[in-house]
Design goal:
Helix content is 0%, strand content 52%. The strands form two sheets. Strands 2, 4, 5, 6, 9, 10 and 11 form a seven-stranded mixed β-sheet that branches. By secondary structure, the protein is an all-beta fold. The radius of gyration is 13 Å and the shape is globular.
């Protein structure tokens, strides 16, 4: 059974950092491109970042490049999203997605940036 379980979300103040994790199971993790998306209240789900199966290629939403970093550890079947200098506009539910012959989504983790 395929599972993607996000963790690491929470409430932080503007300027602080968070690292999200997405633990995968039930499929060949290293064969899948992995991505992060986010959905703010009342808005569509937006692309955040993506990383190739081997971790050598990454791409980011233009507005987030330089603050967010995606990485993966194929020995742990986990993809990460390091988020720095967080802003209130970063408040959203963050989802990981496995992109392969069959796409998979996690359930999401809430990130709230507020003073």
């Amino acid at each position: 059974q395929v599972q993607l379980v996000e963790s690491g979300g929470g409430l932080v103040q503007p300027g602080e950092s968070l690292r999200l994790s997405c633990a995968a199971s039930g499929f060949t993790f290293s064969s899948y491109v992995m991505s992060w998306y986010r959905q703010a209240p009342g808005k569509e789900r937006d692309f955040v970042a993506t990383i190739s199966g081997g971790g050598t290629y990454t791409s980011y939403a233009t507005s987030l490049k330089g603050r967010f970093t995606i990485s993966r550890d194929n020995t742990k079947n986990t993809v990460y999203l390091q988020m720095n200098s967080l802003k209130p506009d970063d408040t959203a539910v963050y989802y990981c997605k496995a992109i392969g012959s069959t796409p998979y989504w996690g359930q999401g983790t809430q990130v709230t940036v507020s003073s």
